[in-house]
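Exercise: predict the fold of this chain.
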Amino acid sequence: MDERALIKKLNRHSRGALDQAVARYTPYVSAVILRTLAGRACREDVEELSADVFVALWTHADTLDPEQGVRPWLATVAKNKATDFLRRSRPSAPIPEDAPDPSPGPEELTQRRDQSARLWAAVDGLDEPDRTLFVRYYYEGDKLKTIAAELGLSQTAAKQRLFRGRKALKAALQEGAETR
């Protein structure tokens, strides 16, 4: 069965077409996943991700376009599934036994608190709308486009205000560090 006929049968949720797609494309899907994972997962993870790709194929079978083919769709889904897997399972590097204790001491904690307090004082010293722009963009993680629109600014103006604000904050923090 050619690919167009296979997709048309998948569009009609033919179980036989799914079985044929799994048999035909599993090596391809596995190769895409392996390439994306770059050796950072075991065989069972690759098999599970491949199965997830074919579950997605079955779930979205009615949206497939016979003219575009199924291979590009499978490759995209496989790459996305593997990338999501990497995001969820970022392995941490083992810590050598002779490594220094990573927890900060009381002096470092005091310095961090002091620096944080100076930073927030500098941010509070910004004029509006720069203060709101800074807090929402850097602290709350809102998108610049959204913040700019809500503040009645163009995106370019918002970027310029962030740039000038960073310079002002840097100067204020350096000035505060020199007086200590």
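Check your answer against the key: The first helix runs from residue 3 to 11.
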